[in-house]
Specification:
By secondary structure, the protein is α+β, with helices and mostly antiparallel strands. It contains 15 helices and 21 strands. It has a seven-stranded mixed β-sheet with strand order 5-4-14-15-16-13-17. It is globular and about 75 Å long.
Length: about 525
């Protein structure tokens, strides 16, 4: 019987995607599969993604990584969510916080109880003004209540999130559960230097598990008959053969596109930004335990606090602003002095028509690109590797397996895409041509249905294994001032007194837990210790 098992895997490209793939595959596949990674020191990596989401901690556990050691090496800090500023109106700000919002009762999500309380106060406030009940749903009423942080009569939704409460006071320490309560604790991710993260993963791979080959690919040879990739020729003349190839070569997609002509699906009509400028600035100011994304005239600007510097960038649409103007906006809005000149990046939002084609699988920028508004880039690499391991093929790469991988990948990318589009579409800004276009654009039917369902019923449902859970959708929908007309009928089962007590108890528990947390900068200094250079 012929042995059809895959014996040689070749990864083209290093960076975060390449070395993450190498580390995870080497750990999972063991010595039975020879792993080789081809990269050139002359080819730089994009290296601007410095914020993550909590799923990255699964990698740590799988690889046996010590969190404190990692954060020392990558100059990392902790992340409780992302603050979004000015996306709906100038002056608006809300947090997309990781973790729980309140506590569900039975099968009814918590936010319906909060909606009932807010809608009840809104109705009571307008009951005596002579208007009919149908006139009482005032535009902006829920959003204005949601912005009334600290008011005793209308605490905002984020008063029921420990992540949000801690972020508001720049506090952090790991807390799995709020003591003596059914409430979950902090859910967190990291800010780090992405280049050093790739280096850290590379150095942790067991000696001999992955062979690094220095060189540039000059030719990709395809096998006659089925068109599978057979080997690579490097600029040194070396031939690198393999059974399975992973393309981590960045935007150019050297294998998936250059050799296999897979095709690319352009999503710029929904996600119009096509350029970015990235610049580091000096450390300084509060070490905030969250990423900041602030809307600008034709895009948005990120701010990511690291231990040794601050990462900044301006993502923008070149049809509405020049490169010079974009750079000027970026530099004018830095909190500290820049440490160099802004580095330019051009991109097309979208995805390959097939992430897995024949015996080649694309990861990272070779598979697709969606701007880093919700820090999904590293996660999409992680989930792509997880899917590959779950469906690891033999050398024939059965088409049914390949089709299922591509179906699941498309599902994930499209749902992340919809979540990002929501930030642009649900805007009331008309002050610039860019925001007017975003507010007027047609959106995918899948997103339109979700918005309409929430607007009419307050209900949100997570579809299958999509990345963002109901709590994430609820925060962004409400943060973008999409106001539900109703709440779930089961939220009416509590009496008014029971509802008030339920909400007050959660606020008390969240407040007590928040007060036990140290300042973020103090915890980082104690846990991570001295910088590793």
């Amino acid at each position: 019987m012929n042995d059809s098992r895959i014996r040689q895997v070749v990864i083209v490209g290093g960076g975060t995607a390449g070395w993450m793939a190498a580390a995870l595959l080497a750990q999972a596949l063991g010595a039975g599969v020879a792993m080789r990674l081809v990269e050139s020191a002359e080819i730089g990596t994009v290296g601007v993604g410095e914020a993550t989401i909590p799923q990255i901690r699964h990698i740590n556990r799988f690889l046996g990584i010590d969190e404190d050691e990692l954060l020392r090496f990558v100059h990392g800090t902790y992340k409780l969510g992302v603050q979004l500023n000015g996306f709906t109106r100038l002056g608006d700000s809300y947090l997309h916080a990781f973790g729980d919002l309140g506590l569900p009762l039975g099968l009814t999500p918590f936010h319906h109880y909060w909606l009932r309380a807010v809608q009840g106060r809104t109705s009571a406030a307008s009951a005596g003004d002579g208007r009919d009940a149908g006139d009482r749903a005032m535009p902006g009423a829920i959003a204005e209540c949601a912005g009334a942080a600290g008011r005793a009569d209308a605490p905002d939704l984020w008063a029921y999130s420990l992540n949000a409460a801690a972020a508001a006071e720049n506090r952090f320490a790991p807390l799995e559960k709020i003591p003596d309560s059914p409430l979950g604790g902090l859910r967190y991710a990291y800010h780090f230097d992405a280049t050093r993260y790739a280096q850290y993963l590379r150095e942790r791979i067991a000696p001999g598990a992955v062979q690094r080959i220095e060189g540039k690919v000059t030719e990709v040879r395809l096998r006659e008959g089925d068109g599978f990739i057979e080997s690579l020729r490097l600029d040194s003349g070396e031939i690198v053969e393999g059974d399975f190839f992973i393309d981590c070569s960045g935007f150019r997609g050297l294998l998936i596109e250059g050799a296999l002509n897979t095709g690319y699906e352009n999503w710029q009509h929904w996600l119009p930004c096509d350029r970015a400028l990235a610049v580091a600035s000096a450390p300084g100011g509060p070490m905030r335990p969250y990423t900041q994304a602030s809307a600008r005239t034709a895009g948005w600007q990120w701010r990511i606090p690291l231990r040794h510097r601050t990462g900044n960038g301006h993502v923008y649409c070149s049809r509405f602003i020049s490169d010079d103007e974009a750079a000027a906006q970026l530099l004018a809005n830095l909190e500290t002095e820049p440490l160099g000149d802004p580095r330019p990046l051009r991109f097309v939002t979208g995805m390959r028509r097939l992430a897995w084609n024949r015996n080649c699988l694309a990861l990272g920028l070779a598979a697709g690109f969606m701007e880093p508004l919700e820090s999904t880039s590293i996660h999409l690499v992680q989930s792509g590797i997880s899917r590959l391991l779950a469906m690891f093929p033999d050398r024939h790469c059965d088409s049914a397996l390949v089709d299922e991988y591509n179906r699941q990948t498309r599902f994930e990318y499209e749902h992340v895409r919809d979540f990002l589009i929501l930030h642009y579409k649900a805007t009331e800004r008309t002050d610039t041509p860019f925001w007017r276009q975003c507010g007027a654009m047609e959106i995918p039917p899948s997103l339109a249905r979700r918005i309409e369902l929430f607007r009419r019923t307050g209900m949100v449902f997570r579809e299958g294994e999509e990345l963002f859970a109901e709590t994430g959708w609820v925060q962004v929908l409400l943060g973008q001032r999409i106001e539900p007309e109703h709440h779930h009928p089961l939220a009416d089962a509590l009496s008014d007194a029971q509802l008030e007590g339920f909400l007050a108890d959660i606020r008390t528990l969240v407040g007590r837990a928040k007060n036990t947390l140290p300042p973020h900068h103090a915890f980082v200094a104690r846990a991570a210790g001295s910088l590793v250079t």
